[in-house]
Protein backbone atom coordinates (compact mmCIF):
# COMPACT_ATOMS: atom_id res chain seq x y z
CA UNK A 1 0.00 0.00 0.00
CA UNK A 2 1.30 3.44 -0.82
CA UNK A 3 -1.45 5.39 0.89
CA UNK A 4 -0.39 7.44 3.91
CA UNK A 5 -1.30 5.78 7.18
CA UNK A 6 -0.93 8.80 9.40
CA UNK A 7 -4.50 10.06 9.04
CA UNK A 8 -7.23 10.11 11.63
CA UNK A 9 -8.66 7.02 13.30
CA UNK A 10 -11.60 7.35 10.93
CA UNK A 11 -9.29 7.05 7.93
CA UNK A 12 -7.57 4.01 9.42
CA UNK A 13 -10.92 2.49 10.12
CA UNK A 14 -12.18 3.04 6.61
CA UNK A 15 -8.85 1.96 5.12
CA UNK A 16 -9.04 -1.31 7.04
CA UNK A 17 -12.64 -1.65 5.98
CA UNK A 18 -11.78 -1.27 2.31
CA UNK A 19 -8.88 -3.70 2.74
CA UNK A 20 -11.27 -6.28 4.18
CA UNK A 21 -13.73 -5.66 1.35
CA UNK A 22 -10.98 -5.91 -1.26
CA UNK A 23 -9.75 -9.19 0.18
CA UNK A 24 -13.29 -10.62 0.14
CA UNK A 25 -13.81 -9.32 -3.40
CA UNK A 26 -10.56 -10.79 -4.74
CA UNK A 27 -10.32 -13.98 -2.73
CA UNK A 28 -13.81 -14.80 -1.53
CA UNK A 29 -15.31 -17.09 -0.43
CA UNK A 30 -12.84 -16.63 2.41
CA UNK A 31 -12.98 -17.12 6.18
CA UNK A 32 -12.57 -14.38 8.79
CA UNK A 33 -9.34 -16.00 9.97
CA UNK A 34 -7.87 -16.05 6.48
CA UNK A 35 -8.75 -12.39 5.94
CA UNK A 36 -6.95 -11.51 9.17
CA UNK A 37 -3.87 -13.47 8.07
CA UNK A 38 -3.90 -12.05 4.56
CA UNK A 39 -3.91 -8.38 5.56
CA UNK A 40 -2.25 -8.64 8.97
CA UNK A 41 -5.14 -7.25 11.02
CA UNK A 42 -6.09 -8.67 14.40
CA UNK A 43 -8.99 -11.21 14.36
CA UNK A 44 -11.24 -8.99 16.57
CA UNK A 45 -10.74 -6.05 14.15
CA UNK A 46 -11.67 -8.24 11.21
CA UNK A 47 -14.72 -9.59 13.07
CA UNK A 48 -15.96 -6.07 13.85
CA UNK A 49 -15.56 -4.92 10.26
CA UNK A 50 -17.17 -8.12 8.91
CA UNK A 51 -20.17 -7.68 11.23
CA UNK A 52 -20.60 -4.12 9.99
CA UNK A 53 -20.37 -5.23 6.35
CA UNK A 54 -22.83 -8.10 6.91
CA UNK A 55 -25.32 -5.72 8.50
CA UNK A 56 -24.99 -3.29 5.59
CA UNK A 57 -25.43 -6.25 3.14
CA UNK A 58 -22.15 -5.54 1.33
CA UNK A 59 -21.13 -9.16 2.02
CA UNK A 60 -22.91 -12.44 2.74
CA UNK A 61 -22.01 -15.68 4.48
CA UNK A 62 -21.74 -18.16 1.66
CA UNK A 63 -20.73 -21.67 2.67
CA UNK A 64 -18.80 -23.73 5.18
CA UNK A 65 -15.07 -24.04 4.49
CA UNK A 66 -12.71 -26.93 5.15
CA UNK A 67 -11.65 -27.35 8.74
CA UNK A 68 -8.01 -27.14 9.71
CA UNK A 69 -8.66 -29.05 12.94
CA UNK A 70 -11.41 -27.29 14.87
CA UNK A 71 -14.85 -26.07 13.89
CA UNK A 72 -15.39 -25.58 10.15
CA UNK A 73 -15.23 -21.86 9.31
CA UNK A 74 -18.05 -19.92 7.63
CA UNK A 75 -16.88 -18.32 4.41
CA UNK A 76 -17.71 -14.79 3.27
CA UNK A 77 -18.23 -13.39 -0.19
CA UNK A 78 -19.11 -10.08 -1.74
CA UNK A 79 -22.84 -9.49 -2.15
CA UNK A 80 -22.33 -7.83 -5.52
CA UNK A 81 -26.02 -7.70 -6.42
CA UNK A 82 -26.96 -5.84 -3.25
CA UNK A 83 -26.20 -2.36 -4.56
CA UNK A 84 -25.88 -0.57 -7.87
CA UNK A 85 -23.58 2.07 -9.25
CA UNK A 86 -24.15 4.63 -11.99
CA UNK A 87 -21.31 5.42 -14.41
CA UNK A 88 -21.62 8.15 -17.03
CA UNK A 89 -19.44 8.93 -20.05
CA UNK A 90 -19.95 12.58 -21.01
CA UNK A 91 -18.68 13.26 -24.53
CA UNK A 92 -19.16 16.24 -26.79
CA UNK A 93 -22.24 14.83 -28.52
CA UNK A 94 -23.66 12.11 -26.28
CA UNK A 95 -24.11 11.11 -22.66
CA UNK A 96 -23.73 7.33 -22.22
CA UNK A 97 -24.88 5.97 -18.87
CA UNK A 98 -24.65 2.57 -17.21
CA UNK A 99 -26.29 1.06 -14.16
CA UNK A 100 -24.17 -1.83 -12.86
CA UNK A 101 -23.77 -4.10 -9.85
CA UNK A 102 -20.65 -4.07 -7.66
CA UNK A 103 -18.81 -6.24 -10.21
CA UNK A 104 -19.54 -3.71 -12.96
CA UNK A 105 -21.99 -6.12 -14.65
CA UNK A 106 -24.36 -4.00 -16.69
CA UNK A 107 -27.97 -3.98 -15.48
CA UNK A 108 -29.17 -1.21 -17.74
CA UNK A 109 -27.76 1.40 -20.06
CA UNK A 110 -29.01 4.45 -21.83
CA UNK A 111 -27.80 7.10 -24.17
CA UNK A 112 -28.92 10.69 -24.58
CA UNK A 113 -27.94 13.22 -27.20
CA UNK A 114 -26.35 16.40 -25.94
CA UNK A 115 -28.54 19.41 -26.67
CA UNK A 116 -26.85 21.70 -29.21
CA UNK A 117 -24.66 24.44 -27.65
CA UNK A 118 -25.87 23.83 -24.08
CA UNK A 119 -25.25 26.32 -21.29
CA UNK A 120 -24.24 25.06 -17.84
CA UNK A 121 -27.86 24.85 -16.75
CA UNK A 122 -29.18 22.87 -19.73
CA UNK A 123 -26.11 20.63 -19.63
CA UNK A 124 -26.64 19.83 -15.93
CA UNK A 125 -30.37 19.24 -16.55
CA UNK A 126 -29.46 16.67 -19.21
CA UNK A 127 -27.00 14.94 -16.89
CA UNK A 128 -29.58 14.99 -14.13
CA UNK A 129 -32.11 13.31 -16.43
CA UNK A 130 -29.62 10.56 -17.31
CA UNK A 131 -29.16 9.78 -13.61
CA UNK A 132 -32.93 9.92 -12.90
CA UNK A 133 -33.69 7.40 -15.66
CA UNK A 134 -31.30 4.87 -14.17
CA UNK A 135 -32.08 5.45 -10.50
CA UNK A 136 -35.71 4.71 -11.33
CA UNK A 137 -34.80 1.31 -12.74
CA UNK A 138 -32.44 0.42 -9.86
CA UNK A 139 -35.43 0.11 -7.51
CA UNK A 140 -35.29 -0.29 -3.77
CA UNK A 141 -33.84 -3.81 -3.75
CA UNK A 142 -30.61 -2.63 -5.27
CA UNK A 143 -30.12 0.98 -4.17
CA UNK A 144 -27.56 3.13 -5.96
CA UNK A 145 -24.56 3.87 -3.72
CA UNK A 146 -22.63 6.30 -5.90
CA UNK A 147 -22.34 8.08 -9.22
CA UNK A 148 -19.13 8.27 -11.27
CA UNK A 149 -18.70 10.70 -14.15
CA UNK A 150 -16.07 10.49 -16.90
CA UNK A 151 -16.12 14.02 -18.31
CA UNK A 152 -14.24 15.08 -21.43
CA UNK A 153 -11.84 18.01 -21.13
CA UNK A 154 -10.07 19.41 -18.10
CA UNK A 155 -11.53 18.21 -14.79
CA UNK A 156 -10.71 19.01 -11.17
CA UNK A 157 -11.47 15.64 -9.54
CA UNK A 158 -11.06 16.97 -6.00
CA UNK A 159 -13.76 19.57 -6.46
CA UNK A 160 -15.80 17.54 -8.95
CA UNK A 161 -15.77 20.48 -11.36
CA UNK A 162 -15.53 20.43 -15.15
CA UNK A 163 -12.93 23.20 -15.51
CA UNK A 164 -13.07 23.35 -19.32
CA UNK A 165 -15.11 21.23 -21.72
CA UNK A 166 -13.83 22.29 -25.18
CA UNK A 167 -16.47 20.40 -27.18
CA UNK A 168 -19.30 22.05 -25.24
CA UNK A 169 -17.61 25.45 -24.82
CA UNK A 170 -18.35 25.32 -21.09
CA UNK A 171 -16.16 26.35 -18.16
CA UNK A 172 -16.29 25.71 -14.40
CA UNK A 173 -19.41 23.57 -14.29
CA UNK A 174 -19.94 22.25 -10.70
CA UNK A 175 -21.04 18.73 -11.68
CA UNK A 176 -20.52 17.10 -8.28
CA UNK A 177 -22.26 19.84 -6.28
CA UNK A 178 -25.23 19.85 -8.63
CA UNK A 179 -25.77 16.06 -8.70
CA UNK A 180 -25.09 15.58 -4.99
CA UNK A 181 -27.70 18.16 -4.20
CA UNK A 182 -30.21 16.58 -6.57
CA UNK A 183 -29.74 12.94 -5.54
CA UNK A 184 -28.09 12.94 -2.11
CA UNK A 185 -25.49 10.39 -3.27
CA UNK A 186 -21.70 10.61 -3.42
CA UNK A 187 -20.58 11.83 -6.88
CA UNK A 188 -17.05 11.51 -8.28
CA UNK A 189 -15.86 13.25 -11.43
CA UNK A 190 -12.75 12.41 -13.46
CA UNK A 191 -11.45 13.24 -16.90
CA UNK A 192 -12.93 10.71 -19.36
CA UNK A 193 -9.64 9.12 -20.39
CA UNK A 194 -8.45 8.93 -16.76
CA UNK A 195 -11.73 7.12 -15.99
CA UNK A 196 -11.14 4.82 -18.96
CA UNK A 197 -7.68 3.98 -17.60
CA UNK A 198 -9.20 3.08 -14.22
CA UNK A 199 -11.77 0.87 -15.95
CA UNK A 200 -9.01 -0.90 -17.90
CA UNK A 201 -7.04 -1.37 -14.68
CA UNK A 202 -9.91 -3.12 -12.92
CA UNK A 203 -11.75 -4.88 -15.76
CA UNK A 204 -9.77 -4.62 -19.01
CA UNK A 205 -6.27 -4.95 -20.41
CA UNK A 206 -4.56 -3.13 -17.54
CA UNK A 207 -5.32 -5.70 -14.84
CA UNK A 208 -1.86 -7.24 -14.55
CA UNK A 209 0.12 -4.16 -15.50
CA UNK A 210 1.85 -1.67 -13.21
CA UNK A 211 2.52 1.04 -15.81
CA UNK A 212 0.21 1.55 -18.74
CA UNK A 213 -1.34 4.28 -20.85
CA UNK A 214 -4.84 4.45 -22.33
CA UNK A 215 -5.05 6.52 -25.47
CA UNK A 216 -8.42 7.72 -26.62
CA UNK A 217 -8.63 8.74 -30.28
CA UNK A 218 -12.00 10.23 -31.16
CA UNK A 219 -13.05 13.83 -31.75
CA UNK A 220 -9.95 14.73 -29.72
CA UNK A 221 -6.93 12.74 -28.56
CA UNK A 222 -5.97 12.23 -24.92
CA UNK A 223 -4.21 9.79 -22.63
CA UNK A 224 -4.95 8.36 -19.18
CA UNK A 225 -1.74 7.42 -17.39
CA UNK A 226 -1.34 4.72 -14.73
CA UNK A 227 2.11 4.62 -13.11
CA UNK A 228 2.89 2.27 -10.24
CA UNK A 229 -0.81 1.25 -10.32
CA UNK A 230 -1.88 4.83 -9.54
CA UNK A 231 -3.48 7.39 -11.80
CA UNK A 232 -1.03 10.16 -12.68
CA UNK A 233 -2.86 13.47 -13.10
CA UNK A 234 -0.03 16.02 -12.97
CA UNK A 235 0.17 19.20 -10.90
CA UNK A 236 -2.95 20.80 -12.40
CA UNK A 237 -4.79 17.70 -13.69
CA UNK A 238 -3.43 18.20 -17.23
CA UNK A 239 -1.17 15.15 -17.61
CA UNK A 240 -1.90 13.10 -20.72
CA UNK A 241 -2.78 15.95 -23.10
CA UNK A 242 -0.90 14.19 -25.89
CA UNK A 243 -3.41 15.49 -28.44
CA UNK A 244 -1.60 18.82 -28.15
CA UNK A 245 1.95 17.57 -28.58
CA UNK A 246 3.46 18.87 -31.82
CA UNK A 247 4.17 16.23 -34.46
CA UNK A 248 4.31 18.48 -37.56
CA UNK A 249 5.83 21.96 -37.31
CA UNK A 250 3.99 23.03 -40.46
CA UNK A 251 0.76 21.21 -39.71
CA UNK A 252 -2.77 22.59 -39.52
CA UNK A 253 -3.89 25.02 -36.85
CA UNK A 254 -5.33 23.42 -33.70
CA UNK A 255 -8.16 24.77 -31.55
CA UNK A 256 -5.51 25.37 -28.85
CA UNK A 257 -3.81 27.95 -31.11
CA UNK A 258 -0.72 25.88 -31.98
CA UNK A 259 0.09 24.24 -35.30
CA UNK A 260 0.52 20.56 -36.11
CA UNK A 261 -0.82 19.17 -32.81
CA UNK A 262 -1.30 15.38 -32.93
CA UNK A 263 -5.08 15.71 -32.80
CA UNK A 264 -5.19 17.96 -35.88
CA UNK A 265 -3.79 14.98 -37.80
CA UNK A 266 -5.25 11.78 -36.33
CA UNK A 267 -8.65 12.59 -34.77
CA UNK A 268 -11.86 11.45 -36.47
CA UNK A 269 -12.60 14.94 -37.89
CA UNK A 270 -8.95 15.25 -39.07
CA UNK A 271 -9.15 11.96 -40.98
CA UNK A 272 -12.45 13.05 -42.55
CA UNK A 273 -10.91 16.37 -43.56
CA UNK A 274 -7.95 14.68 -45.28
CA UNK A 275 -10.38 12.70 -47.41
CA UNK A 276 -12.56 15.75 -48.14
CA UNK A 277 -9.50 17.71 -49.33
CA UNK A 278 -8.25 14.88 -51.57
CA UNK A 279 -11.67 14.45 -53.19
CA UNK A 280 -11.86 18.23 -53.73
CA UNK A 281 -8.51 17.95 -55.55
CA UNK A 282 -9.96 15.30 -57.86
CA UNK A 283 -9.03 12.02 -56.14
CA UNK A 284 -11.50 9.22 -56.84
CA UNK A 285 -13.15 7.49 -53.91
CA UNK A 286 -16.42 5.73 -53.11
CA UNK A 287 -16.87 8.50 -50.56
CA UNK A 288 -17.42 10.98 -53.39
CA UNK A 289 -20.81 12.50 -52.45
CA UNK A 290 -23.71 12.34 -54.88
CA UNK A 291 -24.56 15.53 -56.75
CA UNK A 292 -26.84 16.70 -53.92
CA UNK A 293 -24.44 15.85 -51.05
CA UNK A 294 -21.61 18.00 -49.74
CA UNK A 295 -18.04 16.94 -49.02
CA UNK A 296 -18.45 18.24 -45.45
CA UNK A 297 -20.97 15.51 -44.74
CA UNK A 298 -18.18 12.89 -44.86
CA UNK A 299 -17.33 11.83 -41.29
CA UNK A 300 -14.56 9.76 -39.72
CA UNK A 301 -17.04 6.85 -39.43
CA UNK A 302 -17.76 7.02 -43.18
CA UNK A 303 -14.03 6.90 -43.92
CA UNK A 304 -13.64 3.91 -41.60
CA UNK A 305 -16.48 2.02 -43.34
CA UNK A 306 -15.07 2.84 -46.79
CA UNK A 307 -11.58 1.70 -45.70
CA UNK A 308 -12.99 -1.63 -44.53
CA UNK A 309 -14.64 -2.00 -47.93
CA UNK A 310 -11.27 -1.50 -49.65
CA UNK A 311 -11.45 2.15 -50.72
CA UNK A 312 -7.85 3.19 -51.52
CA UNK A 313 -8.14 6.80 -50.38
CA UNK A 314 -9.81 5.83 -47.09
CA UNK A 315 -7.16 3.15 -46.41
CA UNK A 316 -4.39 5.62 -47.16
CA UNK A 317 -5.91 8.16 -44.75
CA UNK A 318 -5.93 5.65 -41.90
CA UNK A 319 -2.38 4.52 -42.73
CA UNK A 320 -1.21 8.12 -42.57
CA UNK A 321 -3.05 8.69 -39.27
CA UNK A 322 -1.57 5.43 -37.90
CA UNK A 323 1.98 6.55 -38.76
CA UNK A 324 1.50 9.98 -37.18
CA UNK A 325 -0.07 8.42 -34.10
CA UNK A 326 2.97 6.12 -33.98
CA UNK A 327 5.21 9.22 -33.82
CA UNK A 328 3.10 10.76 -31.04
CA UNK A 329 3.08 7.52 -29.05
CA UNK A 330 6.83 7.02 -29.52
CA UNK A 331 7.36 10.40 -27.82
CA UNK A 332 5.20 9.24 -24.94
CA UNK A 333 6.92 5.82 -24.79
CA UNK A 334 10.32 7.52 -24.52
CA UNK A 335 9.01 9.72 -21.70
CA UNK A 336 7.16 7.15 -19.58
CA UNK A 337 8.37 3.67 -20.63
CA UNK A 338 4.98 1.94 -20.17
CA UNK A 339 4.42 -1.85 -20.33
CA UNK A 340 1.25 -1.45 -22.32
CA UNK A 341 -0.66 1.05 -24.44
CA UNK A 342 -4.42 0.49 -24.74
CA UNK A 343 -6.20 2.20 -27.62
CA UNK A 344 -9.83 3.29 -27.41
CA UNK A 345 -12.24 5.78 -28.96
CA UNK A 346 -14.00 5.90 -32.34
CA UNK A 347 -10.86 6.04 -34.52
CA UNK A 348 -9.43 2.94 -32.80
CA UNK A 349 -12.46 1.00 -34.14
CA UNK A 350 -10.60 0.96 -37.49
CA UNK A 351 -8.51 -1.89 -36.00
CA UNK A 352 -5.46 -3.08 -38.00
CA UNK A 353 -5.96 -0.32 -40.59
CA UNK A 354 -4.68 2.03 -37.88
CA UNK A 355 -2.69 -0.22 -35.56
CA UNK A 356 -0.45 -1.88 -38.18
CA UNK A 357 1.17 1.35 -39.46
CA UNK A 358 1.21 2.59 -35.85
CA UNK A 359 3.12 -0.48 -34.62
CA UNK A 360 5.54 -0.31 -37.59
CA UNK A 361 6.31 3.32 -36.81
CA UNK A 362 6.89 2.64 -33.11
CA UNK A 363 9.17 -0.28 -34.03
CA UNK A 364 11.18 1.89 -36.43
CA UNK A 365 11.53 4.87 -34.13
CA UNK A 366 11.55 3.78 -30.50
CA UNK A 367 14.68 2.80 -28.59
CA UNK A 368 14.86 -0.95 -28.10
CA UNK A 369 15.18 -0.49 -24.32
CA UNK A 370 11.95 1.54 -24.24
CA UNK A 371 9.80 -1.04 -26.03
CA UNK A 372 11.34 -4.27 -24.73
CA UNK A 373 8.29 -5.02 -22.57
CA UNK A 374 5.73 -3.00 -24.51
CA UNK A 375 2.50 -4.28 -26.02
CA UNK A 376 -0.05 -2.15 -27.87
CA UNK A 377 -3.64 -3.39 -27.94
CA UNK A 378 -7.23 -2.29 -28.49
CA UNK A 379 -9.48 -1.76 -25.48
CA UNK A 380 -11.39 -4.92 -24.54
CA UNK A 381 -14.13 -2.75 -23.07
CA UNK A 382 -14.82 -1.16 -26.47
CA UNK A 383 -17.05 1.88 -26.60
CA UNK A 384 -18.17 1.33 -23.00
CA UNK A 385 -14.63 1.75 -21.65
CA UNK A 386 -15.19 5.25 -20.25
CA UNK A 387 -18.61 4.46 -18.72
CA UNK A 388 -17.20 1.30 -17.07
CA UNK A 389 -14.32 3.52 -15.93
CA UNK A 390 -16.81 5.93 -14.38
CA UNK A 391 -18.33 3.00 -12.44
CA UNK A 392 -14.81 2.04 -11.38
CA UNK A 393 -14.23 5.49 -9.85
CA UNK A 394 -16.99 4.66 -7.35
CA UNK A 395 -15.67 1.12 -6.81
CA UNK A 396 -12.18 2.46 -6.16
CA UNK A 397 -13.59 4.47 -3.22
CA UNK A 398 -15.16 1.32 -1.76
CA UNK A 399 -12.28 -1.06 -2.29
CA UNK A 400 -8.62 -0.47 -1.51
CA UNK A 401 -6.83 -1.61 -4.66
CA UNK A 402 -7.64 -3.95 -7.54
CA UNK A 403 -4.97 -6.39 -6.44
CA UNK A 404 -3.89 -6.39 -2.88
CA UNK A 405 -0.19 -6.89 -2.26
CA UNK A 406 0.37 -10.26 -0.58
CA UNK A 407 2.41 -8.66 2.20
CA UNK A 408 0.74 -5.58 3.63
CA UNK A 409 2.34 -3.48 6.32
CA UNK A 410 -0.95 -2.27 7.76
CA UNK A 411 -1.66 -3.25 11.32
CA UNK A 412 -4.22 -2.26 13.83
ZN1 LIG B 1 -3.49 21.73 -29.91
Secondary-structure map with pairings?
Elements lengths: L8 H19 L2 E2 H8 L3 H13 L3 E6 L9 E5 L5 E7 L3 E7 L5 E8 L6 H19 L5 E8 L2 E3 L4 E5 L4 E4 L1 H9 L3 E5 H12 L8 E6 L3 E7 L2 E3 L30 H4 L1 H13 L19 H9 L3 H25 L3 E5 L7 H14 L2 H4 L3 E4 L6 H14 L14
Parallel strand pairs: 4-7, 7-11, 12-15, 15-16
Antiparallel strand pairs: 1-3, 2-3, 4-5, 5-6, 8-9, 9-10, 12-13, 13-14
Helix pairs in contact: 1-2, 1-3, 2-3, 6-13, 8-9, 8-10, 9-10, 10-11
The chain binds zinc ion.
The site of zinc ion has 5 residues, from loops.
Short summary of the structure?
By secondary structure, the chain is α/β, with parallel strands linked by helices. The protein is built from 13 helices and 16 strands.
Number of H/I helices: 13
Strand content: 15-25%
Radius of gyration: 24 Å
User: For this entry, what is the oligomeric state of its chains?
Assistant: single chain
**What is the fourth-level CATH superfamily of the largest domain?**
ATPase, nucleotide binding domain
Structural class: alpha/beta
* Amino- and carboxy-terminal Cα gap: 15 Å
Describe it for me?
It is a single chain. The chain is α/β, with parallel strands linked by helices and 412 residues long. It folds into three domains: 9-79, Orthogonal Bundle (Arc Repressor Mutant, subunit A); 84-201 and 387-397, 2-Layer Sandwich (Nucleotidyltransferase, domain 5); 207-379, Nucleotidyltransferase, domain 5 (2-Layer Sandwich), CATH 3.30.420.40. Helix content is 40%, strand content 21%. The chain has a five-stranded mixed β-sheet. α6 (192-203) crosses α13 (385-398) and α10 (312-336) crosses α11 (352-365). It is globular, with a radius of gyration of 24 Å.
Amino acid sequence: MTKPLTGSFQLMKSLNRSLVMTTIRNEGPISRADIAKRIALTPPTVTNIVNELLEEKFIVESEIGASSGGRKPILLKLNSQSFSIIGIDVGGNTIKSLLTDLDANIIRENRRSMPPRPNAETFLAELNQSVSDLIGSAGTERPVIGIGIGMHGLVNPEEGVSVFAPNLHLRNVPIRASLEEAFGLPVYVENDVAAMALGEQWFGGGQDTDHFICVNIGVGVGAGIILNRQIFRGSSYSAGEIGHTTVDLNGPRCNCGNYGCLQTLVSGPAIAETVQNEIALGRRSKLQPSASGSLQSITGEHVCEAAKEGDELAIESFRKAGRLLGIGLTNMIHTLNPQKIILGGGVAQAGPLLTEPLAETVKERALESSVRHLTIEASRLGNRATAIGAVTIVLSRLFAEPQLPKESGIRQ
